[in-house]
């Protein structure tokens, strides 16, 4: 397969002509179907684009983020971070890592009666324990039964009077969205694992693959004051 050849004219507000249209017209004129070079130069192999790199604002923001992270977080500081604050360490839901951030986690739901296993995939940029408490809430109160695909499956087992147990684990670790970035690796990793998983053993809905990054919305001006509130219970602040 021939890789497309890109024509990147410099952008200028003073130019009023449709550069892309005129350029493609030249391709059609000088390389018609009767030309022996038409296979190499046509609208499928030659593309026009004004932008093929990040803008200066994005590059600057990423650079500043790396500099601040390297100066504020040293290896000795990271070593002192607590990964678990459970009173009884043996009861930690994530094997001593319940305070882990920016992870894709897996909840393995096993039906005690028939041994059926379902593996739910979820993400959290906040400490896992905060997300774990939200899951526990949805397991206890039926009003939150449809809050996640995991709670829906748990209540389905409850109503059919089938006992179950859940084993939590970290599937992947990835960086979440930061201002200036073009994507969120945490959300992309979750969607990749959902696509890769066995459809017969995963309760996640494929509609989750079409959702937008919720971590990016945290940085919108409308949500800044909400995120700073200690009493905020919105889902956007708990993921």
Structural summary, described in words:
The chain is of the alpha+beta class and about 240 residues long. It has 2 domains: about 5-50, no CATH class; about 85-235, no CATH class. The chain has helices at about 20-30, 55-70, 75-80, 130-140, 150-160, 185-195, 215, 220-225, and strands at about 5, 45-50, 105-110, 115-125, 165-175. Strand 3 and strand 4 (about 115-125) form a beta hairpin.
Rg over alpha carbons: 25 Å
In total, how many beta strands? 5
Q: Give the overall average pLDDT.
A: 83
Tally of helical segments: 8
Ends apart, CA distance between termini:
42 Å
- The stretches of 5 or more residues where confidence is low (pLDDT under 50) are none
Count of distinct structural domains: 2
Proportion of beta-strand residues: 5-15%
**DSSP helix fraction:** 25-40%
Task: Describe the sheet with the most strands.
Answer: 3 strands, antiparallel
Across the major sheet, the strand order is 4-3-5
How would you spell out the order of helices and strands?
Answer: EHEHHEEHHEHHH
What form results from the Cα inertia axes? elongated
The secondary-structure class comes to alpha+beta
């Amino acid at each position: 397969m021939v890789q497309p050849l890109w024509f990147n004219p410099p952008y200028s507000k003073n130019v009023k002509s449709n550069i892309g249209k005129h350029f493609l017209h030249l391709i059609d004129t000088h390389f018609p179907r009767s030309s022996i070079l038409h296979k190499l130069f046509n609208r499928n192999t030659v593309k026009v684009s004004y932008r093929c790199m990040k803008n200066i604002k994005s590059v600057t923001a990423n650079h500043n983020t790396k500099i601040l992270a390297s100066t504020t977080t040293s290896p000795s500081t990271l070593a002192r971070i607590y990964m678990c604050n459970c009173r009884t360490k043996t009861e930690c839901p994530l094997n001593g890592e319940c305070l882990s951030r920016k992870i894709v986690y897996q909840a393995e739901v096993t039906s005690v009666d028939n041994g059926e296993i379902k593996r739910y995939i979820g993400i959290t940029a906040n400490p896992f324990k905060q997300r774990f408490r939200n899951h526990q809430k949805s397991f206890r109160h039926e009003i939150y039964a449809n809050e996640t695909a995991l709670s829906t499956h748990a209540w389905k087992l409850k109503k059919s009077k089938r006992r179950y147990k859940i084993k939590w684990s970290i599937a992947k670790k990835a960086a979440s969205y930061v201002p200036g970035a073009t994507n969120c690796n945490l959300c992309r990793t979750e969607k990749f694992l959902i696509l890769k998983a066995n459809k017969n053993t995963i309760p996640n809905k494929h509609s989750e693959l079409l959702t937008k990054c919720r971590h990016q919305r945290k940085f919108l001006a409308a949500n800044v004051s909400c995120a700073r509130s200690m009493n905020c219970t919105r889902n956007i602040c708990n993921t």
